[in-house]
Amino acid sequence: MTEATHEIVVVGGNLAGVQISHYLLRKTIPALQATDKHQTTAYHLTLISPNTHLFYKIAAPRALINPTLIPTEKIFKPLTPAFQQYGESFEYLQGEAVDLDITHREVVARMYTARGGERRVKYDSLVIATGASTTSPLWSFHGGHGESVNAFRTLYRQLPEAESIVIAGGGPVGVETAGEIASAYPDAKVTLVGGEAGYLLPREKVAMGLKAEDMLEDLGVDVKLGVKLSDANASSITRPIPLSDGTFLSPSVFINATGPRIYNTSWLPPAWLDDSGQVLVRDAYFRVQTTSTSISAKNVYVIGDAAAGYKRTAMELDAMVPTVASSIAIDIMVERKLASQMRGSSLNGLMGLVKPFKKPYVGEQIDFKPARDTMMVSIGPKGGVGVRLGWGVPSWMVKKEKAERFCLELVDPLVDGTKFD
After folding, report:
1. Are 406 and 173 in contact (CB under 8 A)?
2. What is the dihedral of CA 348, 352, 358, 360, to 10 degrees?
3. Number of CB atoms found within 10 A of residue 136's CB
4. Region label for 389, one of left (φ > 0), alpha (ψ between -120 and 50) or beta (otherwise)
5. In this structure, are residues 138 and 255 in contact, taking their beta carbons and an 8 Å threshold?
6. What positions does the domain FAD/NAD(P)-binding occupy (predicted)?
7. Residue 391 in contact with residue 371, Cβ under 8 Å?
């Protein structure tokens, strides 16, 4: 007979929050239940997020070109149908986390429903997946998904008529966006303001950035290096656009692709955050670190862009999901004293509880092992630059693996959770 319910709360409903929720519901929770032969504990997961749709922002650089290449309905997918399969084990709350009550272990959410108001949601395990916000809604939610869809539609009207287009940002998003626009609108004057690093893709090896610069210039893009926006918050309507070298630009269209403006962590205790607002981690398994002995971070985890010290890539996120889930499982098992059933006392001994299950085992602490030195950056639909395990890859390989379809075949399995079957 079930005596208690363990409440798992995931805050943030985009790529990180959706994936960790599916993984927990499909793999971790069933395995935990299998270790509890007397069924003393039930499990319930609540997902809190202001958005009703997942935003597959990986494909945004091509989706912004026109409504036919990648229609917005291909990258904005409703969440409710995707989670109906879990029945009463799951609840979605449309709202925004605004505070955290550490004493009572409750998330305070401002509801985005017709009735509004606030709701307090009890947690035993808390996953922070709120990510970051960019200046432009082309790359992140600004509330729900409606503002992002409108930003795409605005570009559909503007780009075909634009004489000059400026993209700011020398990272993958800026490079991909410049390549897509220059390929689709070769008569427009396209300028990429690439930042102060002196080369594009500054998180990668210099050679990769130089190759990207050459490919963009072959498409007619004017690449400005050693200069950045004076105001990182410059929006699509900012004119003139001030640059760090004292010059100004006044293009027909301006796209700010400079990356995160703010991390969505203001609802968390400052003792859990670094100076940038990212969440501190105390180990390699994404358990949250606190800098205050009076503000506990017990059974609190972080995943995705909000985690301090990581590159914020899709490949890293893929590796984070099983690692975070394994941390939650182990902490639950230890807390429920399931470890006492083991012959040994170490965490590795928990493996004995779940021998019948396929990997990843619920009692195994899974290491975070993202693909090392691996990145693909498309530059138009015909190719791009990339590196795999530290080795450069040819443009045709980038075309096959990313540039042709922007990995759209991955969207539906991610949204409905079958990615983890």
Report:
1. no
2. -20
3. 24
4. left
5. yes
6. 7-311
7. no
CB neighbour class for 375 (10 Å; exposed up to 12, middle 13-18, buried from 19): buried
> Both tokens of residue 369?
């092992």
Please tell me the predicted confidence (pLDDT) of residue 349. Answer: 38
Query: Average of pLDDT values for 230-252?
Result: 95
What's the whole-number mean pLDDT along residues 185-206? 95
State which amino acid sits at residue 357. F
Q: How high is the mean pLDDT of the chain?
A: 92
Cα–Cα distance for residue pair 287/301, rounded to 1 Å: 5
Bridge partners, residue 165, by sequence:
190, 253
Tell me the one-letter amino acid at 32.
L
Quote the radius of gyration of the chain (alpha carbons, Å). 23
Count CB neighbours of 382 within 10 A.
16
Reduce the DSSP state of residue 216 to 3 states and report it: helix
Side chain identity, residue 122: K
- Amino acid of residue 100: L
d(CA 72, CA 352): 47
pLDDT at 353 over 80: no
Are the beta carbons of 129 and 328 closer than 8 angstroms?
Answer: no
Residues 76-122: tens digit of each pLDDT: 999 999 999 999 999 999 999 999 999 999 999 999 988 889 999 99
Of 35, 38, 37, 33, the C-alpha closest to 6 is 33
pTM of the model: 0.92
Q: Are 261 and 176 in contact (CB under 8 A)?
A: no
Structure confidence at residue 364 (pLDDT): 80
Cα–Cα distance for residue pair 300/8, rounded to 1 Å:
10
213 is written with which tokens? 């610069």
Q: Which residues of 104-116 are buried (b: 16+ CB within 10 A; e: fewer)?
A: ebbbbbebbeeee
Are 274 and 286 in contact by the 8 Å Cβ rule? The answer is no
| DSSP state, residue 317 | H
* Encoded tokens for 118: 């606030």
Type of residue found at 378: S
Look at phi and psi of residue 18 and say left if phi exceeds 0, alpha if psi is from -120 to 50, else beta. Answer: alpha
Amino acid identity of residue 169, one-letter, is G
Count the Cβ atoms, other than its own, within 10 Å of residue 86: 17
Give dist(CA 376, CA 383) in Å, integer.
10
